[in-house]
Amino acid sequence: MRPAAFDYRAPATLGEALALLAAHPGAKLLAGGQSLVPVLNLRLAAPPLLVDLRRIPELARSVLEHDGALTLGAMTRHRVFERDARVRAAQPLAAAAVPHIAHVAIRNRGTIGGSLCHADPAAEWPAVTLACDAAMTIAGSAGTRTVDAADFFTGLFETAVGTGEILTAVRFPAWPARRRHGFAEVARRHGDFALVGVAAAVDLDERGAVALARIAVFGAADAPVLAQEAAQALVGRRGEGAAREAGRLARARIAPRSDHHASAEYRSELVEVLVRRALGQALGVAPAKAA
Amino acid sequence: MKRIVEVTINGERHELALEPYRSLLDVLRNDVGLTGTKKGCDVGDCGACTVLLDGKPVNSCLVLGVEVGGSEILTIEGLQRGPERLHPLQDAFMRHGAAQCGFCTPGFLMMASALLDENPAPTEEEIRFGIAGNICRCTGYTKIVAAIQAAARDKAEGKA
Ligand SMILES: Cc1cc2nc3c(=O)[nH]c(=O)nc-3n(C[C@H](O)[C@H](O)[C@H](O)COP(=O)(O)OP(=O)(O)OC[C@H]3O[C@@H](n4cnc5c(N)ncnc54)[C@H](O)[C@@H]3O)c2cc1C
Ligand code: FES
Ligand code: FES
Question: How far is CA A25 from CA A14, A165, A202, B66, B135, in A?
Answer without folding.
Answer: 17, 12, 44, 22, 39
